[in-house]
Amino acid sequence: MNGQSIIVALLVAACAVYAAWALAPRAARRRIATALLARADASRANAPRPDAPQNASGSAWPAPVVRFLERHARVDDGCGCDGCDVGAAKARPASPQDAARPITFHPRPPR
Predict the structure, then answer these.
(1) Could you read off the pLDDT of 66-107 as tens digits, one per residue?
(2) Residue 9 has what pLDDT?
(3) Packed helices 63-73 and 26-46: angle between N→C axes, nearest 10 degrees
(4) Residue 11: predicted pLDDT
(5) How far is CA 31 from each of CA 55, 83, 90, 105, rounded to the nearest angstrom?
(6) What's the CA gap between 33 and 38, in Å, rounded?
(7) 72, 33 Cβ separation under 8 angstroms
(8) In terms of Cα–Cα distance, which of 77, 67, 80 is closest to 36?
(9) CA-to-CA separations, 24 to 28, 31, 70, 79, 95, in angstroms, rounded
(10) Higher local confidence (pLDDT), 1 or 70
(11) How distant is the alpha carbon of residue 15 from its chain centre?
(12) How far apart are CA 14 and CA 21, in angstroms?
């Protein structure tokens, strides 16, 4: 097997993993992320080696991977936003005059 075939096989495998992750339901992604985080924590607890590379959080995973898995392991409120109160202040009218505006319907010209 030459180098080009190995690179293609790695790219195809990475694309398959990405497609499976992107198309999986949110509950499945949450379970997978929770299991991966728990497995990393369990392997770190079972075989602590002083020479093992660890990041600031103590995990053997790289920090971006830990942040990614923690974000997906969290149970969200379901809307996918940062919270309903974030946009509520912007949506409120500044004054009572801005609150009530008449709607004007314009008739379409005949064809």
Answers:
(1) 888 888 888 766 665 655 655 555 555 566 666 677 888 999
(2) 96
(3) 130
(4) 97
(5) 23, 23, 35, 51
(6) 9
(7) yes
(8) 67
(9) 6, 11, 17, 17, 45
(10) 70
(11) 17
(12) 11
Q: Is the pLDDT higher at 75 or at 8? A: 8
Question: Helices (DSSP H) in the chain: which residue ranges?
Answer: 3-23, 26-46, 63-73, 84-91, 96-99
Instruction: Kindly state the average pLDDT of the residues 5-34.
Output: 94
Residues listed for the chain: 111
Instruction: Record the tokens describing residue 106, joined without a space.
Output: 């314009």
- Per-residue confidence at 5, pLDDT binned at 50, 70, 90? very high
Residue 19 identity (one-letter amino acid)? A
> What residue type is 89 in one-letter code?
A
